[in-house]
Amino acid sequence: MENKKTTMICAGFGGQGVMMAGKILCQTACDTTDMNVTFFPSYGMEKRGGTANCYVCIDEEPIGAPMVNHVNNLMIFNDLSYDAFINKLEPGGNLFLNTTLVKFRGDRDDINVIEVDAGNISVEMGSPKSLNLIMAGAFVGYTGALPVENCVETIGHKLGGKRPDLAAINEAAFRKGVEIGQAARKK
Question: Which domains are assigned to the chain?
Fold first, then answer.
C-alpha cells in the first residue's frame, strides 16, 4: 500500500490567515484520522503585514522532523511568498495560488497549478478574512487529503466561538474552495 504523505507550505503575509489555514488542516487530520501530524509556524519580524508561513505534514508513518526541504503542496497567498517558496515544490506537486494577489509566472512546467481568486471571492461573500478558508477548501477539494465534512466541523469548532455571526460565511467560503479544487481536478 502506498504511503499517503502530505507535505505543505502555506505562505503569505500576516493577517491573511495563513496560520489558521494550516491549523485547520492539521486539527482536522489530528482529530478525525489516524494520521500523524506536525505544524511548524514561522513568523516574520513584523506582526500584521509581515511574512508568515507554516509547514504542515500529515503522514501515516511517524514524522521525523516538522520541516522538510521540499513539499508536495504549496499554498501561496502573495508574490513575496511565491518567490521565496516556488523552488521548494517537488516536481509533480500542487501549487495553490491566490490569484487575487499573485499570478503564475510560468517558471515551472513540472507542477500542477490550481488558481484560486480567493481574495476577490471572499470579498464577494462578505468576509475578506475568509480567503484562507477558500484556499484550504481548494486544497481539500483538489487533493482529497481530508474529508470535507470533517474540515467543516473543525472550522466550526475553531472559529465558531469567536464570531458566531460569521459561521455561515466561513462554511460557505470553505465549500466554495472545495468546489474550485474539485473543478480543477477534473480538468
Answer: 6-186 (3.40.920.10)
